[in-house]
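so i finally got all the pieces together for this one. its two components total, 536 residues if u count the protein bits. some of the lines might not be protein, just check the labels. i wanna see the whole assembly predicted at once instead of chain by chain like last time, that was a mess tbh
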Amino acid sequence: MTDAVGPFQSIAELARLIESGELSPTELVKTHLDRIAALDRELNSYISVFEADARREAANATQEIRSGNYRGPLHGIPVGLKDNWSVAGHPTTSGSTVLRDYVPTHDATVVERLRAAGAIVIGKHNMNEFAYTGDARNLRFGPILNPWNPEYSPSGTSGGSAAAVAAGLCGAAIGTDGAGSTRRPAAACGIVGLKATFGRVSRHGQYPAAQSSVDHPGILTRTVEDAAIVLGAVAGQDDRDPASAASRVVDYRQQLRRDPSTIRVGIPEKPFGPASADALKAVDDALATMERLGMSVREVSLPHAGIELTQAMEAPILAAEGHATRLHDLLRQHHASIDDLGPDIRTFYYVARAMPASVYVTAQKARRLLIRDFDRALRAVDVIVTPMAVASAQTRTQDLMGKVTVDGADVAAVSGGRAFSIPYNLTGLPALSVPCGFTAAGLPIGLEIAGRPFDEATVLAVAHAYEQAAPWHTANPPV
Amino acid sequence: MLSKQLVEQLAGCEIHDDDLELVQQKFEELLEYERRLLELDLAHEEPVTAFSRESFR
């Protein structure tokens, strides 16, 4: 194996070595498995590791490549999955005791597509129960640590996936994003998190089934180019997901390079919510970088995108579409009782069952105003840029207490922590977080870039141009 | 105020006494969210239909 191989190399870099024969999938998978064994007892990012399967698949990939059948940049790359994606023959817990005996018999569509591209599924990542709360704690499997500082949380339900990618325990991960749960942990762990347009990536095989109109698959990688590679593999219509869209999939990697002078960047006239001084400074610096690259920056009006309204839309939608019926079905299907659910989840269930229908319908009517705001704004600009999170990673104690602190002031986690992520779950627009700096305490900060429906290519191109000019992603956590 | 009896009837199971206060608080939050949204001019808006792709874009 070449000495150049390190745990923090991008998929694009590893793929070059694999294609040239300097590195074999067998060696690469061994490196990752050894690293998981050495580090994950503390980090706790994995619920299960597929050691035997991964070694066997890696040996097959090595043989295939030596025979001249190289499939592309994911061939031989170890990927992880949030533990709410189905892999045939392996338990899928969704972080809950309710699913203690559940073993799916089929692969999720994203898993099928990753395997077809040659990727090797190395294991499944820790998450909070059913991805229902906005943090990264789990009563059954224990808390996930942020690789930048073990006192801090990875800050979101795909926190295990973000921590694993950031710590070099897999090349990429697939998470989910119902209110920012891919993008916010990506920001907190200093990596890239992409939520594609609603319908762009199939949700078939997510378990419990994604039934809510704000639920999206998410992609977590170390670079924007890697996100383009993974999106290219998993995107596309799937008849098994009723929400799947027929929109054309392009070669996202090829479209990463654009003339920056053709890009119009929008910033909201009024912030979506509070943000820390560190985050605001980092975003100002990022916008200055974009202008230096030749992009134009202007304000756009989004009058219904403030957290006081978006939270009022999102909470009833999640309650009605997700919590009210899905939990009921799960308890029945798995012969479980309400006592098998954690206290937060029990509360969601009771409240959702009692919520009047008018609350849900009013939220869905107000959602129209938000969709119209963004539609109008994105006629004037190509992308909209904001901080990704109100603040960087929160301590694990804050996580347990459901608190988010912005410059010393507590902001309720539910209302404040998701101000910048929720608008894109409600509108279904593509949105990505890319590293844009560090706090004074040395924790990563994310920049959010969002675009038009099904125009992930422009979002990725803007993020790539920024990332190349401001390479924050090259800093690695001290693990 | 949402009663314990009504929650149990709607949920189809018993509610833990420890959970009741938080359930009532969250329920009030949802009603407050609706009041907030009803201050907007929604008279001519059609609700987004959850699973219709077309209605959402």
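The two ends of chain A are 22 Å apart (CA to CA).
Chain A is about 40% helix and 15% strand.
anyway lmk what u think
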